[in-house]
Amino acid sequence: MIHVRNSWHVACWSMDLAVGQPFGITMANDPVVIFRTESGNLVALEDRCVHRLAPLSLGRCEGESLRCMYHGLRFAADGACVEIPGQDIIPAAAKVRAYPVVERHSWIWVWLGDPALADESLIPQAVGLDDPDYILGHGQLDYAAQAQLIHDNLCDFTHLAFVHPASFGATEEWATTRPRITQLPRAVRFERWVREQSRGHWGGELVDAWSSYEYHVPGILLMQTASYAAGTADMLNDAAPTPDLPRTGVTFTSQAVTALTDSTSRYFFSWGPHRDHGDEALRDTLMGVAGMAFAEDKTMIEAQQRVIDLDPSRRVMPATFDKGVVLYQRLVERLAREEGLEAAA
């Protein structure tokens, strides 16, 4: 699988990282340990002691450093070994890799590529759980499947009509209409009207739903969905709604797909209504729906992975609704190729 390393990867939820408790995760085949120091600073290091290659995530936080609990080597925040018990001379090679790490939008982000290129402005503008405008729930799932299959799923909502009719209540219009797709420097944008959808969780009347989302490298989905009175899409001739157009409902979801290895992935998600269009009860209802829907995705994608594993050489047959999938795959390939050229230079 292709990994774009010069990008910000989601490692965990902020609240899952307690002070003094190392957190280990494999990201794009890199073992990484993340911890908060005594002063509250974030540190991300290679999760592999230089001595016997034991995981530092089983270690002990000491002030601003991390001690390996196999033979006691202690590492500073920059990855340098600063203590070897009973040994005065510390070899210059006694150093583990340090990764740029940032806390933003309720997630811990790690830059897996060249530290000199770690630009915080490239962190996608997700909506955090503490955002005052939204009432959000959150969760995560582990997949026994490669991340690319989840990327493909999230770049093609045709599947909503067939995988999620019971959970999301999606109609076949999701399969028969095509979104407006725009290529961005590090993302693909999808916009579409879906007419006369059941308002479902907000009430029983039919509405026109405007869905607009961006899918950013290395796998970050940011989507606002708004509902309008039925007939709005026709009135606008499928143009994007203006900000002053009255809405009957607004939700936002931030999702992140992190490749753990070439064959396993972790999927983070939050979802909920805007405060002007819902409350905690609606959030809980939506999260119940999300739990059902994302389990449906997981069942299908893991089954897909098992079939692929039987014959990895078998090629897929593209269809017209795969445009966004292909654009995202080409974007990943281009960015990874550019990384290779930079490394070679």
Sum up the structure in keywords.
alpha+beta, 7-stranded antiparallel β-sheet, 4-stranded antiparallel β-sheet, 6 helices, 18 strands, 32% strand, elongated
Describe the fold and architecture.
It is a single chain. The chain is elongated. The longest helix is centred in the last third of the chain and has 31 residues, at 280-310. The protein is α+β, with helices and mostly antiparallel strands and 345 residues long. It is built from six helices and 18 strands. α1 crosses α6 (323-344). The strands form four sheets. The protein has a seven-stranded antiparallel β-sheet, covered by helices on one side. Strands 2-3-4-9 form a four-stranded antiparallel β-sheet, with no helix packed on it. Helices cover 21% and strands 32% of the residues.
